[in-house]
Amino acid sequence: MLQLKGYETFLVHGEHNTPEVAIERLVKTGMLPSSFPVMVSIPSFYPLDWAKAFCALAKKFDPSCRIIVGGRWVVGPDVAWLRAKLPGADLFVEGLGEPIIESLLTGKPDLRRLSAPTPGFTLNHLLVDGYERYQPSIEASRGCGMKCVFCEERDVPLERLRDPDDLAASMAIVQEHLARLFGVNDAREAIGGDVQLARRFEQFTLSRWAANEQFEILVALILRNTPLRHPSVLTAKALGRILQITEGITANIFHMINSLAIEAIESGKERITDEAIEKWEPEFDAEAAYA
Whole-angstrom Cα distance, residue 89 to residue 52? Predict the structure, then answer.
């Protein structure tokens, strides 16, 4: 979410490493020291000792850094108790942080518990350091509302599932992220070179996109996940031009929009326009035809 608003964002998973290793990774990548806060997400009570040591090390390396702790299953039940367990943390965020996360970067953070429905964008898994080691996820809905006293979602009504076309477009975005990592031909050769893998994985050729509502949803989701300062509103003619140039191939569509986004940043316009699409010259990988 912060990346979509134009902030440089970096995510590190603690994995099974020590807090010292996590701090070292942040220092090596230039994320510490930073004028922005370090946000620590704690998914359960098991890593509290790890989080306590991490906060202490971060403060030791950079005494001025602000540490914000989130993770509603841990923070929500008893903030005062958790504050005593993590003396190195500066702020504790209850509930979901999406509606207030940008305010946490300021000197006047908004710490209210606000409702946060399923977001209309797809998570950018490429922001996670070593993202290839983790299973990507796509949110279909949120909430429960079954009133279990121990649950932080006890009073959050269950939402309806996202539209199937919307989910399919999100899956296409995640698939493109993985294709960038492995490459279509590399993946095909790796599976084809092992008899057991070839038996376990069936190869499917993706259908090409056509001029319909599904294609419009795909482009809208890609644009929504593109970190430009201004929204890109495209006409039906521009969408038709994208389809014509890319021949409806998923990888080509992503490549074209990414290239247009770079041009938009370099030009200072910070949005993709019909004019830019009309002038764009294609340059695609040969293997993209399989994607």
Answer: 8
